[in-house]
Amino acid sequence: MVRTANWIGDAVMTLPALMAVRETYPEAHIAVVANPLVAQLLENHPGCDEIIVYNKRGEHSGIFGMLRFAFALRRRKFDCAILFQYAIEAGVMTFLAGIPRRLGFTTDGRRFLLTHPVPFGETEKTIHQTDAFLRIVNHYDIIAADKVQALALLEEERIWAKEQLPEGPVVVVNPGAAYGSAKRWYPERFAAVADFLVSEYGMIPVLIGGPGEVEVGNDIAAIMQSPVLNFVGKTSVRQMMALIDSASLMVTNDSGPMHVAAALKVPIVAVFGPTNHTTTSPFTENYRIVRHDGGCSPCMLRECPTDHRCMDSVTVDDVIEAAKSLLLEIA
């Protein structure tokens, strides 16, 4: 049993480690425990045979919901649990499930719940998250030949995306970030960049995002001078993945969809502010990060307590220049 991460971006970054489990134990039945959104992300993935949905906001809410879930796992008689989630809850769950081997980082005070602990020190805090997840399994000789993030899309999902879009190069604009408002660049600046890409490169702008980002999507659509296809709050995770897969370029904040684009090999221009670009940058070759230190980043805060200088200092021209440089490189 693999307990994956709760955020879409983090779950994408676990994929090389998940494939290491698959390659090391090719005959094993691998079941991934995931929340409903991450469960969609991992549908049809070759690294797992089964996805078990753990819905903390639904039938598994509260302590009794978690206990019911843990005892349901106990009936499955898993012989090993690998914990990519860092929280103590994952340790408690797998301990109560009676899983005899429990691998994971010694984070959140859960060392006593693990039979196969992995130390979490300064190195793990500073390396790329993808490499940190790999350290969990590599520590016990679970190793893959290649370090690759990959997501599985069905042909019918690609066809669906093609049916939604006119012919031509697509720029996907992702203005949201589920972690918090501090990670979000400004709607009017996203709109200006998208308008430039339409006028200079003939790109078709497509807005994506979750239900909580509908307002910012509407703001961008209203500001833009060019027609835009606004899918914010209107797609499933799988449909969002298909739209991203159809793109020639993504312009985005540091976010889950950014990591989806990296896994799908879509070129990325990413605006970073309060988060650490060295640990959560796109795990791909074709990308540009646009950031200014501001003296206080990365602070890792969900909301800026001061003047949002790290984001305010990133200009429209900065992002346009990054996009031009990247497009020239991949041409």
Please explain how this structure is put together.
41% of the residues lie in helices and 13% in strands. It is globular. With 331 residues, the chain is of the alpha/beta class. It folds into 2 domains: 2-138, Glycogen Phosphorylase B (Rossmann fold, 3-Layer(aba) Sandwich), CATH 3.40.50; 155-330, 3-Layer(aba) Sandwich (Rossmann fold), CATH 3.40.50.
Secondary structure layout plus pairing:
Blueprint: E1 2-3, H1 8-13, H2 15-24, E2 31-34, H3 36-41, E3 50-53, H4 62-76, E4 81-83, H5 88-96, E5 102-105, E6 116-118, H6 122-126, H7 129-138, H8 155-164, E7 170-174, H9 187-201, E8 204-207, H10 214-223, E9 229-230, H11 237-245, E10 249-253, H12 256-263, E11 268-271, H13 277-280, E12 287-290, H14 309-312, H15 316-330
For CATH, the homologous superfamily of the largest domain is named as: Glycogen Phosphorylase B
Estimated radius of gyration: 20 Å
Determine the strand fraction and express it as a percent band. 5-15%
Compute the number of strand runs.
Answer: 12
Element-level helix/strand string: EHHEHEHEHEEHHHEHEHEHEHEHEHH
Alpha-beta classification: alpha/beta
Major β-sheet annotation: 6 strands, parallel
* Average residue-wise pLDDT: 93
Examine the coordinates and then state which fold CATH places here, giving the name of the CATH topology of the largest domain.
Rossmann fold
Distance between the termini: 43 Å
